[in-house]
Prior knowledge:
Helix content: 25-40%
Largest sheet: 5 strands, mixed
Number of helices: 19
Low-confidence stretches: 1-61
Strand content: 15-25%
Number of strands: 19
CATH architecture of the largest domain: 3-Layer(aba) Sandwich
CATH class of the largest domain: Alpha Beta
CATH superfamily of the largest domain: Periplasmic binding protein-like II
Shape: globular
Structural class: alpha+beta
Amino acid sequence: MERLSRRSLLRWLAAGTAGTVLAACGQKAPTTPMVVRETVIVAGTPQVVEKVVTATPAPGGLEANAQLTLCTWEGGITRDTIEAMIKDFTNLTGIKVTHMVPTEAYMDKLQVMVAADQLPEVFYISRGYIADWAEKGQLLDITEQLNSDPTVKVDDIVEANLNRIGGHCYAASVTTEPQVMFYNRDVFDKAGEPYPPAEVGKAWKLDDIIQVARRLTVDVNGRHPGESGFDPDNIDVYGWEWWNWIGGENVWWMNGYELYTGPDLMQVKLTHPEVIEVYHKLSEIPNLHHIAPPAGYYDKVGFGMIQAMARGKIAMITGANWLLPEIVQNKFNVGAAVLPLLGPKYAIWGAGEGLSISAKTKFPAASYKLLSYIAYGQGTASVWRTGLWMPQLKSLLEKEEGWKTWLVAGVHPEEYPTAACIPAARYLKVGPLRKGAQEVWDKWIGPAIDDALFGRKPPEEVLADAEAKANEFLAANPPWFPS
């Protein structure tokens, strides 16, 4: 094993703050050693080993006999890391935490818990449910606790992760999850093409990336799209796996629009001419340019998207940061780049899921301490180092001294600071937390976008239909704002 990170105290108990934190909790700062955690990463893999070097439980607790349940949907290495984090948290605070991972549909399980009045103290919540649950009084308003938290500055948190409704916070984000482009350097080198840009100011336009992808796409006879004899049914290398991630709300944002209109969020506007034009161009990717794998491709070849890129069958992919662990496992010459521009402005979608506290918890202070430790402290830093998650603090995303604490050679491509970290801090956007927004997306907007993207229906027709149906629903379901 190669040690790639130095020993450090946890951020929220760093020198100069530990005494303040404990004093704020009504405890005396212990004189015995605190937890020092050593992270060891197997070079070139996402495997992380963590051990507690020194552990001394803090006396007492934030509330007498505080015992919490943390409910998540994590599996694999992330589940193991969270459970290691829980042990460290208990060592530091004396607060006992039970980790619950439902085996059935997660949000359905939470609904059952709500009905039985057994909602866990701290739990993941799909972002689209936050406004509805806040209105029903299920979620604790953490605004005051967040503003007075001595371990984090609110203005250092990525704005998209604050999950505000009318200035009130009812959830932290679990993590920062920006869109990122990944590519196989060897495919570009073989084709003699320059790598995609890794800086926002140099981002390709949509027409640019389509043309590059056409030159990278080659059939089994060595011909490119547009050349005489090109065989679209027997393509050896595809230029761009654009996935449907490229065609979501960032189509509106990059053209200067919001999906929901007005301060009251009463309507959606889907049919801007610039948006329609982008969808026409995107719909040509699978049906005209043949630069992306068609439906059924992965079933046919017997391996997935990342394996295809690792084998040189796909040149570049529009995806998200959480693809990195699988990329690392497949061991190929990967690079990172910014998304192409779909309009005059740069914006990336990145809706990390919510982390909330039950409004009925008997231990609100202890519950918030756990939430803050996971979301804003170093509690899940080892998951950042695998590439699966990213920090939520701009100071860790925008500055070199911040990058040194979590970026890992052999896991994060060398372009990651400018291709992923800075865009996540400065250009990440999410839709508003509007009551009914999840239903509107699931029933009308999402299906309409898919139909437009894949050329099943004309964009102007399908988006106009979705706009009318969504607005009829929204008119009957006005948004909720806390008083």
